[in-house]
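#struct-pred
JK: can someone run the complex with flavin-adenine dinucleotide? inputs below
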Amino acid sequence: MRTITTDVLIVGSGGAGLRAAAAAADGGAKALIVCKGKVNRSGSTLLAGANVSADVMCDGRSMASMGIGIGDENDSKEKFYKDIILEGVWLNDRGLVKQYVENAPTVIREIVENNKNLHPKGDDREIGIPGSTIIDTYYKMIRERNVDVVEDSSLLDLLKASDGTVAGALFLDLIHGEIFAVNAKATVLATGGMHNCYSFTSGTTGLVGEGQAAAIRAGAEMIDMEMVTFCPGVITHPMKWRGSILPYIIHTNDQFRLKNADGEEFMAKHLPQSAVDLALHSEWNKMLLCYAMHKEVNQEGKGDAYGGVTFDLEFKDEEDEQAFLDHYPFLKTGTCNEMFRYIKDHGGIPVYGAAHYFDGGIFVDPSFATSLEGLFAAGECTGGTFGSNRVSAATTQMLVQGLEAGKSAAAYAAGAELKAFCPVCLEKAEKDALRPFEEGKEDPRKLKKKINEIVSAGAGVVRDEKGMTEALAALEAQDLSAYGVTVDTRAYNRSWMDWLESRSMLTCSKAILASSLMRKESRGVFIRSDYFYTDNDEYLVSTRYKDGRVRLEPVDQADVPVPAGRLGYIENIEDVIKRLSYS
Ligand SMILES: Cc1cc2nc3c(=O)[nH]c(=O)nc-3n(C[C@H](O)[C@H](O)[C@H](O)COP(=O)(O)OP(=O)(O)OC[C@H]3O[C@@H](n4cnc5c(N)ncnc54)[C@H](O)[C@@H]3O)c2cc1C
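RT: done, C-alpha cells with the ligand placed:
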C-alpha cells in the first residue's frame, strides 16, 4: 500500500484545518492536509454567513484596539468569558472557553491585516466577513508555508501503532479508488460537523461526521453529542436554493414575518411575548424560532407542502423597503437579489429548521489533545466549548482551535518518533473499507435515507423518551452488511462513498441518540417535551460517550454562579439572558 509520511497530518481543510496546518508548519513540523473535497472549497466555512457576512467575534475592548472603527472599550475578556458560559447555559468546558477568549483577537487581527480592502461592519464584539474571505486568507497562509495537500481523499479510519498511539490514518483517493495510508507523528482531525445525519441541513453534502465516527471507532471519548443547533429560516423550496440560510441572515428585522400554511403568524401561539421579542432581537432566535415552527407544523398540523412554514417580509412603504436593502446591501445584486425578489413576488419563501451546527463532538483538552495519544482535534468536530448553545462565533472557534491544535501537534511531533502501524489494525481498516465489494447488494443510498428519517424523527428540534428510544432501536437494527456497491469498479465509485458515509452516519447517529437519552431535561438547544425544564440540580453535567456507553461528568461551576433547582425551559432562557453583560 502507498504510504505517505509526515510529521503532522491534518484531516480537513475548513478554517480549523487550514489554521492548524499553518500553525504546525510555523512550529517547525512538516505538515500535510488531506481533505475530502478541494482544499479551499469544501466544508461549512465557505458557507458561513451564507458567504455574505459571517460573524467573527472577540471581546469589545480587543475589537476596539484593532482600529477598525468598532468595539467597546468598556468590555473585557472576563465579561466575554462569563457571557459565553451563560449562553452555553453553564455546560461549557471552562478551559476551552478561556482559550477561545484569549486567542480570538489574534485570529481576527490576522484576517483584518491580511485583507487590506476589507471594511468589515460590526458592533461591539463582532465583525461580519464572508466565509470565502476567511478560507482564502488561510489558504494563502498554507501556500506560503509550503504545506503539502492531498485533495479529494476521504478519511477511512485512524491507524494506531502497536502501543495504541494514533500513528496516522487510512484514506480513499476518491478519484482513482486507491486506498493509501499516511504515517504521521501527530494527527489533527478537523472534519467539521455531522450535518447529513439529518434529512434537512444547511451544511454541505460531504459533511457526515466521518472524523467523529473514526474517532469513536478508535475508542476516543466524545462530549455532549446530544447538542445540535438547528437554524430556522433555511429554504426548503425552490430546490435550487434548498439549504440556503439567507432568510435567517436577514430575519432579525422588523419587517420579518413567519406564517403557517393558512397565512397566519404563529409565534405568539407557542411562546410568551417576552420570548417572541427575544426570538426576534437576540441570537437566541435559533432555538426559540425552531421550537415555535416545530409546534406549528407537528402539533398544530399547519405546515406547508414542503413540511415547513413561510418566511415573509412586509414593508410599510417604498422608503421602508429601501432602508431594508441599504441595511442588507448584498440583497441588491446576484443570487441574493433573486431570492429577495422571489420572497416579494411569491408572498414569502418556504423555510424550516435545519441541522446547522454541532455543539458536541470529540472531547479535547485545552491543548486540543483528544483522549487518544497522538490525536488532536479542532473546530466543529470537537465539543465542549459552547456547552449547550453556541451563540458566539463558530468561525472564531475553528480558527483559535486550529491555531492551538496545530501548535500542540507540532510540539508533540517534535518529541515523538514515527511509529509503524500495528499490522492487524491496518489490515482490519482496509478490509472494513472493502466490505461493500464483498457483502450485500442493497443500494447504500437507501440506508442513508433511512438513517436520515430515523434521526430527524428521533433527535430533531424537540425530543422525547419514546421517540428517542425507538430511534436508537431502529438504528441498532440497521444491518450495514446488507448494503454494497452498485457498480464493481473502484475509481470514483459514488456507491462506495455512499456505503462509507452511511457507516459513519450510523456511528454518529447512535452516539447522538444514546447521549440524548441520558439528559432528562431541556437546556440550550436541547429541548425535550417530556422534561420541559432546565434542571440545575441533576444535569449540570456533560455527557461522555465512549465505546457505545454514556457517562455523566459534572461540570466545574466555581467561576459563574448558577441558580439551584429547576426552571421552565423558556423562563430559564429569559433568566439567563437577563444575566448577560450585554442584555
Ligand atoms: C450555512 C452555514 C452558515 C454558517 N454561518 C455561520 C456564521 O455566520 N457564523 C459562525 O460563527 N458560524 C457559522 N456557521 C458555522 C461555521 O461555519 C462552522 O462551524 C465552521 O466553519 C466549521 O469549520 P471547520 O473547519 O471545523 O469545519 P468545515 O469548514 O466544515 O470543514 C470540514 C473539512 O473537513 C473535510 N472533511 C469532512 N469529512 C472528511 C473526510 N472523511 N476525509 C477528509 N476530509 C473530510 C471537509 O471536506 C472540509 O474540508 C455556519 C455554518 C453553516 C453550515
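RT: quick notes.
The pocket of flavin-adenine dinucleotide is lined by residues 11-17, 34-37, 42-45, 47-49, 54-55, 154-155, 190-192, 202-203, 206-207, 210-211, 245, 356-357, 379-380, 393-395, 398 (CB under 6 Å).
The first strand starts at residue 3 and ends at 11.
JK: thanks, will look after standup
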